[in-house]
Design brief:
mainly beta, 4-stranded antiparallel β-sheet, 2 helices, 10 strands, globular
Length: about 130
């Protein structure tokens, strides 16, 4: 593993199960990295504290059955914001909250057709 500023390079050999996916995003909260990606029908979300890798994909899938590939993660100082194909979510380190209804409401008001959350920036508002 190597760090480059706020970026993290982790060997794919460290991940517990062999899968075909792309790691699109990662972010650090001062305690652990959240690393996300996916490809086609595969999706991947891991936490990594420098020693232990935890696969969070099944926990996320339980909270958000329709989630697709993870495209973005960000730490807002209190909890994680996670975005991907057809969903946004929050994660407090223990449980996930589906924010898809907020995305759908925003899409309807803007007349947007697509639901991917490809990047996240936090302005402090709820």
């Amino acid at each position: 593993m190597e760090t480059f500023g706020s970026a993290l390079a982790v060997s794919p050999l460290l991940f517990p199960t062999p899968m075909d996916f792309i790691l699109y995003t990662n972010a650090w909260n001062g305690h652990f990295w959240l690393i996300g990606g996916g490809y086609e029908d595969s999706d991947a979300l891991y936490s990594f504290d420098g020693t232990k890798i935890v696969d969070l994909s099944s926990s996320l899938s339980e909270a958000i059955p329709t989630f697709g590939s993870i495209q973005s993660v960000a730490w807002n100082g209190e909890y994680w914001l996670i975005g991907g194909v057809n969903f946004p979510a929050s994660y407090d380190g223990h449980s996930f909250v589906d924010l898809t209804s907020r995305l759908n409401a925003a899409r309807e008001s803007d007349g947007d057709c697509c639901g991917s959350v490809n990047t996240i920036a936090w302005d402090g508002a709820e």
